[in-house]
């Protein structure tokens, strides 16, 4: 007789599991310093905290983490720290002078689309990925101001920072999609 009930354990590729874990670890490490922003910028009144962070994780895992195991890399230019329907800014200049960031943008009436207003608040996020530190502007800057100058906090002094820009409406209900401005 032939034994047919013998269970043969499938051999799983251990590197595939390790690759998935490493991608998740990298994505989580990248998003953790941005957690408070992500909760606001991805969430809305009907969205739970887990769903907001889950959306950001999904985007990061599928778009930001690139390469093959074990040589994954994070591509900050592809990251989205906010998502929404407000129109973005047309940035004309962005300069870092020592520990100060100066930013200016063009505003025309044709650039103000549905849901966007002149009093949308501009948020600039400076993010040191290696040091896992992020900061945003404290002062209120509006779309109509066409420029902003911010002093980086001491933890970001003399550190290379990636800059992300986004807007939210006066009630912080609607957000724009984040714009990556570069490494400064």
Can you lay out the helices and strands and say which pair or pack?
Layout: H1 14-31, H2 35-42, H3 49-64, E1 65-66, E2 73-74, E3 90-97, E4 100-106, E5 121-128, E6 133-136, E7 147-151, E8 162-168, E9 179-183
Antiparallel strand pairs: 1-2, 3-4, 4-7, 5-6, 5-8, 8-9
Structure overview:
This protein has helices at 14-31, 35-42, 49-64; strands at 65-66, 73-74, 90-97, 100-106, 121-128, 133-136, 147-151, 162-168, 179-183. It is an alpha+beta fold. Helix 2 (35-42) packs across helix 3. The mean pLDDT is 90.
Total strand count, please? 9
Distance from N terminus to C terminus (CA atoms, Å) equals: 73 Å
Mean pLDDT over all positions: 90
Order of strands in the sheet with the most strands?
6-5-8-9
Instruction: Pick out the low-confidence regions.
Output: none
Cα-based radius of gyration, to the nearest Å? 21 Å
Decide which structural class fits the backbone.
alpha+beta
How much beta, percentage-wise?
A: 25-35%
Order of helices and strands: HHHEEEEEEEEE
Shape: elongated
Q: Portion of residues in helices?
A: 10-25%
Biggest sheet descriptor: 4 strands, antiparallel
Number of helices: 3
